[in-house]
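Morning. Coffee machine broken again, so started the prediction first thing and wrote up yesterday's gels while waiting. Chain of 76 residues, entered below exactly as on the submission form.
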Amino acid sequence: MTESQKELLALAHARMPFGKYKDSYLIDLPEFYVVWFKNNGFPAGKLGQQLQLVYELKLNGLEPMLRDLRSRFQKP
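Came back before lunch.
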């Protein structure tokens, strides 16, 4: 498994660590919430990187791909 594949699999299982949507999968966050981060600044570090990728995936309608990965493969 390549590093990119590992990162996608980790993203498929990543959860929001705080706030109203705490413990929700990042890919399942409401679009308006992710767009808010896009407009106001993503958090620093890994969470911010993951939310940026979630934004791009949602923008391109690729959420089902990540949900499929989550259902097919266990958390790394």
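Helices lie at 3-13, 31-40, 45-59, 63-72. Going to sketch it on the whiteboard this afternoon.
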